[in-house]
Write a structure and sequence with these properties.
13 helices; Rossmann fold; alpha/beta; 13 strands; about 15% strand; about 40% helix; 4-stranded parallel β-sheet; 7-stranded mixed β-sheet
């Protein structure tokens, strides 16, 4: 074999080895992210990413997070509105974002990637995407086994909850309107995390005919359609937080809402956004909390224990 042939075989061998060792993750924007070793210096710009990374046993690998993320006090805080140079100064090898950021700040993504920092956009909008999201985080960080354990644990706890709820006949289950944004009279898409929490807790979604808005977990509904079902709404539930800074008083005093059965019966409640909208193990806590609102006389033991 001459030198040229030997060189060619060597190159082919190296390419083959690289291909075998390479891992691919497809993010929420359908971009294929190919890498050969786990990322070890991570900036997390979505609190759910941080929560899940910690669940996977990662802490020292997270080098910065967003200003609204209080899970790791003392870490540098950065935000997507910052000059990209501020993020680059921290020498990350991976920046985890979500689609809202890449759509609103494409220059951030371009600049980081120009400097060989991988940017991965992840955010499941439907329950069916939850486990894939956790698997992707596991692959990116070399914690695939831990991700599988998360999925297995979540599945077992969820199965226990739903098995216990079979004791409540469907005709006795509460019918619920679940508000996402009060000022716009919006609810959640039928396949969203929030509706998964509601239905897993034994509630019946009164707005199952809502139309999903773009690629989000939000659905349009409107006051007219809410009031058309006023007599059927046993419980009115609203997420509360940055997306929907609402109070029970705001809902009760909304013009026209006095005809809603839940308003008349003092069955209007708030639930923290992060318990129903963030794709973390905390969804189990959300299920337990919502179930306590729906069926206060029904045992709550074992729902959120870890």
């Amino acid at each position: 074999m001459n030198f040229k042939s030997l060189l060619l075989h060597s190159c082919l061998f190296l390419l083959l080895v690289t291909a075998v060792q390479a891992t691919t993750v497809t993010d929420s924007e359908k971009r294929a992210v190919v890498f050969t070793k786990p990322f070890q210096r991570i900036i997390s710009l979505y609190p759910a990413h941080t929560t899940n990374l910690l669940e996977l046993g990662l802490k020292k690998e997270i080098i910065a997070c967003g200003p609204s993320d209080t899970q790791l006090p003392g870490l540098p805080q950065v935000q997507f509105q910052d000059d990209p140079e501020r993020l680059l100064a921290l020498k990350p090898d991976l920046v985890l974002i979500r689609p809202m950021i890449s759509r609103g700040y494409p220059n951030l993504v371009r600049t980081l990637e120009k400097h060989n920092v991988r940017v991965v956009s992840l955010q499941p909008t439907e329950t069916a995407e939850l486990f894939t999201y956790w698997e992707s985080l596991g692959k990116l960080t070399g914690r695939e086994q831990q991700a599988r354990t998360m999925i297995e644990t979540f599945g077992k706890r969820l199965a226990k909850i739903t098995a216990e709820l079979k004791q409540i006949p469907r005709e006795k289950r509460k019918r619920v309107y679940f508000e996402s944004i009060h000022r716009q009279m919006k609810t959640f898409a039928p396949n969203s995390m929030a509706m998964f929490v509601l239905e897993s807790a034994g509630g019946i979604n009164i707005a199952a005919d809502a139309e999903r808005m773009r690629e989000t977990n939000i659905a349009a509904y409107g006051k007219e359609r809410i009031l058309a079902k006023a007599g059927q709404i046993d419980l009115y539930l609203a997420q509360n937080g940055r997306m929907n800074p609402v109070s029970v008083d705001d809902i009760v005093k909304e013009p026209g809402f006095s005809v809603i059965k839940a308003v008349r019966d003092n069955q209007v409640f708030l639930v923290e956004e992060e318990m129903v909208s963030r794709p973390t193990m905390g969804l189990l806590d959300g299920i337990g909390f919502v179930r306590s609102l729906l069926y206060p006389d029904y045992g709550q033991e074992g729902i959120t224990s870890r």
